[in-house]
Amino acid sequence: MQGKALPDQSAQAQVYVGVDVCKDWLDVYFHPLGKALRIANDRHGLKHLKRACEGVAIARLVLEATGKYHRQAHRSLHAAGLPVAVVNPLRSRLFAEAVGALAKTDRIDARMLALLGARLDPAAAPPAGEAMDGLQELVRARQSAVADKTALSNRAGEAETDFLRVELVQLIAEAERHIARLDEEIGRRIDTDERLAERFRILLSIKGVGPIAAMTLLSCLGEIGACSGKGAAMLAGLAPIARDSGDKNGQRRIRGGRAHVRTALYMAAVAAARWNPDLAAFYKRLRENGKAAKIAITAVMRKIVVLANVLIRENRQWTPTRP
Fold first, then answer.
1. CB distance 281 to 303 below 8 Å
2. pLDDT tens digit string along 105-144?
3. Which residues are in the Transposase IS116/IS110/IS902 C-terminal domain (predicted)?
4. Cα(91)–Cα(246) distance, rounded to whole angstroms?
5. How far apart are the C-alpha atoms of 91 and 103, rounded to whole Å?
6. Residues 41, 12: Cα–Cα separation, whole Å
7. Where are the alpha helices (DSSP H) in the chain?
8. Which candidate, 14, 107, 201, 293, has a CA 20 to 30 Å from the CA of 23?
9. Does residue 277 have a cis peptide bond before it, meaning omega lies within 30 degrees of 0?
């Protein structure tokens, strides 16, 4: 008996699949097929989605980065050999507004992601490993814990009731213990992974970059070392964006990117502007040329992320060019 002929994918239209992710389900849209479905955001739902992709010439599946909720889908679909691109939610929202889709529902968002894939063709990328995802979750938890501790300290400073002050002091002490436990676990995970440990040492070799900035760059800027310097700066939201129109040359400003990475880089830049011989000279030159302190520090932040990208790509530690 002659077997059933397989579909000739070369003759099929390229299909872009938009996947809007939330905690409990995935809304999916196949463009230009016009097919839409909603499935559970779990192992069984993803199995159904992969079956729906069989026999279809998938050019790209496009997901929004939604905290941790897109990670399982990214890993599962990539493991099935499907090309998956993960895009920034701001980018997809601006695209939707640009094409006139002002309404926002999960089903509309899925269709917009599919259209974005067809028009802009975002690059497919493999997911971060589970070890990196876990490290990033711990680092983000540490940032939240530090913010909570700062808020408690501010409240304690304003409290007038003795009872409330005592309660807040106890909460601050518990927050400090929580942060210490997170630091210990983050350090343990880095030390037990040879690749992460080597990258961590490279980042720490940059004078001014301490453990907090290094662990943040390592876990929350996983693309570092695999992209261009400009790309790394864009991901961190530190690349100046042009604002020119006609004869007007507007002031360049940074925009977008990963705010939690910039927070860590700010403290590193403040230290580097004082203690790193190369970056201190760079900062001094900007200030002497009339740049405001905030702009000069932002430029140092950008220098650090570009430098870190080069060092990790070349697998070497930083050495000063100035004595």
1. no
2. 889 999 999 999 999 988 888 887 778 888 989 999 999 9
3. 201-284
4. 26
5. 16
6. 29
7. 43-53, 71-79, 89-98, 106-120, 130-158, 162-191, 194-204, 211-220, 229-235, 259-275, 277-288, 293-314
8. 14
9. no
